[in-house]
Every structure is written in C-alpha cells, then in structure tokens.
Amino acid sequence: MALKTYRSKRSFDITPEPRGRVASAAGHRYVIQKHAASSLHYDLRLEFGGVMKSWAVTRGPSLVPGEKRLAINVEDHPIEYNSFEGTIPKGQYGGGTVMIWDRGRWYPEGDPEQSYRKGRLTFRLDGEKLHGRWYLVRMHRRAGERQDPWLLIKADDEAARSARAPDILEEAPWSAATKRTLDEIAQGKPVRKRRPAAVKTSTKSAAAKRTGRSKTKPVRARSSRSRRPAQPARQPAGVKRSKAVARRAARPGPAERAVELTHPDRVYWDDVGVTKQELAEYYRDVWDRMAPHVVRRPLALLRCPDGASGQCFFQKHAHATFNQGHIVRQRSRDEELVAIADLDGMVALVQAGVLEIHVWGSTLAHIDLCDRMVFDLDPGPDVSLAEVVAATKETRARLAAFKLESFVKTTGGKGFHVMVPLAGASWDETKEFAHAVALAMEADAPGRYISKITKSKRKGRIFIDYLRNGRGATSVAAYSTRARAGAPVSVPLDWSELNARLAPNKFTVRNLHRRLVRLRHDPWRDLSRIRQKLPMSN
Questions:
Q1: Which domains does the chain have, with CATH numbers?
Q2: Cα dist from 311 to 22, 139, 354, 355, 468, whole Å
Q3: What is the pLDDT of residues 32-59, one digit of tens each?
Q4: How far apart are CA 300 and CA 15, in angstroms?
Q5: Whole-angstrom Cα distance, residue 446 to residue 58?
Q6: Does pTM top 0.70 for this prediction?
Q7: Alpha carbon of 490 to those of 219, 475, 493, 503, 507: distances in Å?
C-alpha cells in the first residue's frame, strides 16, 4: 500500500494533515513545502504513481548550477497534501508549521518510474518560483542510514543563477498560496495580498489573470424584504431542472450580500448533474433550518474540487483557497479551528468544493463542553433496513430510560444518527456514557450489535458508533450533502416517520424541497432549547 507508511506515522483525529488516497489518474503536479519542524527544511514532492514522491531537502533548493543539496527520500504523501498549509500539532510526527513555498507542474524526461528505480531523475519545473531543468541523483546509503540520500541539483540553463546572485529562498520567503510568512501561518493570520518581487509566474496563469477569463457568478442572501428570485444556473443537457433552484429562503440581515462563485456550472455530482450553483441555492433554501446546527461550531470539511466522483479529502483548517472574509478561524490549544457564521460562509465553502459538512458536538464559545451527544447506527454487510430502524428505536428507548430526550436524522448514507442535546458535559464524561450505552446493547444482543470499530467483525451486525463523542470527533451535519451517488442529504426526522420504508439516503438535493413544503414544523425545532444533564453529572 503506497500510503501505508504515511498513515502509520500520523493520528488523523489530531493532525490537520489529509489522510488522502492513491490517485487513479496520472498527473504532473509538484509542490515544495517549507517545514519548520525540529529543524527547518524544504519538502520537494513530485506527482507520479498516484502519490507525491517526497524528498526532504535540508537546505532547500539552490538556483546555482551544479550546487548539490542533500535530499532525503521520505515516505510517499497523498496528492491532497499539495494543498496543505498550516500547523501540525506538537507531539505529532513532523510537528511544526508547513508553508506551500512553491507549486506548479513538473515534466520528467523519460519514464519517471524507471528513472526513479535507477536513481536518476531529470525533469523540468514550471512553478511560481522555480523553473528550468533539475536533477535528482540517488547516492548509496551509509552504515546506519534508514532512508535513501539523494542530491537535488540545478542544471545550467536560462533559469539558473550565479553564486553572487540573490538566494531565491531569501528573495521569496512567503507562501505561494497565501503570501504569508511562516510566523503568520503559525499565528493563524489571514491570507495576504503582498505582490511577489522578482519572481516569475507562468505565462499561462499570468495571462489568465490579465484577461480575467475566469467566469464568476454571485450568490446573494436576501432579507425578507427582498424575495426576488435570481436567475437559476444552467443545467447540463438532458438533466431535469430541480424546482429548488428557483426557490429562495428568506433570512434576516442586510438587504443583499454576495459571494462570488467561479464556474457556477461546474458539475459536482456527475451522475445526476447537480452543479455548484445548484448546491449553493440548495443551502440557501435550507439555511433557516440548518443554521442552528452549524453556525459557530468547529467543522471538518470534505473537499472534492473535482466533484463527488473525483479526489476528496478532509480538512479541519481553513484552506488557502477559502474566501477568508467569510470563514471564521479560531485557535484552541495548539490547533486551528474553522467555522462559519452565516450563509455567506456556507456559500464560500461551496465555492471551495466542500461537499460534506461535519460538525463537532460543541460550540466555539465552549469548545471543551459537549452539548450534542450522537450515536451513529452503522450497519455492516447483510443487515436489513428494518434491523437498522429497530436498532435506532432501541437506542432511543435506552436513552429514555435515563430520562434523556433524543432526536433522529438520516445520515445520507446507510444508517441513522440519534442526537442527544446536553446542557454541557466534559468530553470524557460524554464519551464514557455513550460507550456504556453501546456496551450494554452489545451485551444484551451480541448477535445484532457491536461496539468495536473492527470491520471484519461487523458482518450481520450494527456498529453502535459512540466514538463521535470525543474532542475533535465529528458527525455529518443536519442538512449537509454527502459526496455519494445521487447527491443525498442528511435530514432531521420526527420519530413517527422512522420506518423500514424510509432509506437513510432517500432525500437528495433534488427532492428535499418537496418534503420541506409538506412539513408543518421542523422536527428538530426544540433541540436547541433542551438542556439536559447526563445521569453521572446529576
């Protein structure tokens, strides 16, 4: 497994680094990340074989031809790591601040796989800071060395510099993605607009900026005084237009604000033709119902820039491509949290390719107190929908025995979530109670339930997932879409609606509006008003 070593070194419930996966399509992206870990170095990553082949360049690249820079061949990284910029918590592997120092495309001479095996790569870089021809040459390991040492060498061409010329590392020390310095990234400061000095940009990207070819479309949030519908997005040929596109939900606030959507016709779910514009309109339609469950809560975001069928990866921090003016960033302990404050923030996430919103069980104001305990009923293979529904109802009954009121929603996947509003309990206390409920269900019916995450033991049984109740753990938010076939949505239900005919992925971006029109009231209208204590805290 190409990413086995990478994943074994990291705890993804702690580090904001992407877990990632091996890509199926070939590409030629490259990135150099400046990394202030135990020692400052630069990580060169070249895309091939579905991953980013990586070298830790101890002194960084040099533009002086023939000057050798030691480059240690480290573990393969996922493609998603190209967009990672932020701080890895202390105590984690590689703890420290990471900057996207340079990025662009690389072009190997010959077969890169074969050249890599032979230990000599010759390639050309076309980045924002580095250009021209380069060499990577493998050396023999010395006694005691566990990783292959290579040398990174600049070829003598038009992109080279003399030893007397300015050092590119000192001349352009900022991030290629956000124009921030390492200290500014570590402090969580917003994206800067500093103009890079004496650094070439690719002709193609510069031309695009000059001509302004990128299409944009504003998505506006109107107050109740302004209900005039905007023009709906164009649909791909052969796709039936959803009525939800033409509907608008009123919300209080300024008469009109807008977040620009670039390429609004980009299809995010190619199996049903749902576009970026339609997704933004969907969130505007459901925002009044959704807002109480996501606003000013820490989020984990599933980004799929190429749509649900492309590469997707989780992020727990504010990506450089986010519209920083509409994203809430807050530091807690040694980590950066990301949240939104309003519909504009949600639309900004849509613009960034976020297809799933996962939420903590706490607010930014009280990060160490859980006010939403959740049980995820996750069926294994060969479990019928009727059995999942019965398990969900049993969970409710067990909670009721403790005089705890609970609420239910579909996940948009295979199961259901049971949500318990709390007055505020410690994370340890909440997780301990949820675990006790899961263990009791398993003990009473070991053939039906399991409390361990081990997939090999889940056939024919339902996993009572209590693990979503730890600090930093998340569950999919109410009304969030899922990056799955059909554009399904996680939807709150009334307990009376739960039956074996209601599939957890029944509701979608395209059909949810019909349900909302029929509803007399929001099934979760009382959830935010209920404040109850766990038995052990009474």
A1: 4-210 (no CATH), 216-359 (3.90.920.10), 369-537 (3.90.920.10)
A2: 9, 34, 12, 12, 24
A3: 999 999 889 999 999 999 999 999 999 9
A4: 12
A5: 54
A6: no
A7: 23, 10, 10, 11, 8
